[in-house]
Amino acid sequence: MTIVDLISTAVTICVLAYGSWSDLMTREVPDRLWIVFAPVACALMFTRIWLSPELAVILIVSAALTALLSVAIFYIGLYGGADAKALICVGLANPTFPLLMKPLLGSFHPFFPIVMFTNSVLCSLLVLLYVASRNLERWLSSRGSFFNGFKVESFWRKLLASICGYKVDFSVLEDRLYLYPMENVQEKDGEVERRLRVHFRAEEDRDKLVGNLKQYVSRGIVPSEVWVTPGIPMIVFFLAGYALTMVFGDILVYGILQLLTFLAAVPR
Predict the structure, then answer these.
(1) b/e for 145-155, b at 16 or more Cβ within 10 A?
(2) Domain residue spans in the chain?
(3) How many Å apart are CA 91 and CA 84, to the nearest integer?
(4) pTM of this prediction?
């Protein structure tokens, strides 16, 4: 099993690293990557069951839970097809924690891919913190003009936009493939209304969204500086989450338990 763990770890890191590079550079992950990784992951799973049949139930349950989670999040639209395939394959290749690994924060259940996913989500939240801090700085110096042109938007939608998006020149939006428009222009009875888009699907047609907005920018209806959101590929965070899980273990559950311990110790 130790050799299987080493092979699984090496293969998974190589696949996630290549997939991250490809997605960042081209916004696509070639299907041949999963055509190769999927049978290798299945072979590793069958090898684990053959070597340790007493663990068969845990191994199968872990892979099945990961697959269900992957499909559910894909259909909700929170990430794309390549991300779903990556998580499913990781669940097959690494259903439980490697025997040689002793995470610094511990592991509270054996389902390694579920922990990897939660750690990946925590990594992705760092982008939101960066965006929020960037917008706070600009808002403080804007003197009330930060959301000019959005007359009907509520405070809460503006707050949400400030967390997940920022303003750039339209030429930057066209040039950088990972940026998606956060603006939607509506024309009613000769009136033009700018709205913020705070709901996104990972499989949206970026070119169509940019093209629709461009016609209003070129006509001067929308200013050259527009709101965008960075569509950083989730597979990049899977790679970071995989490394964090190997070293630290279950960061989310550890943090929750520490918080509960602290609250229990507070005098009432």
Answers:
(1) eebeebeebee
(2) 2-125+233-265, 126-230
(3) 11
(4) 0.82
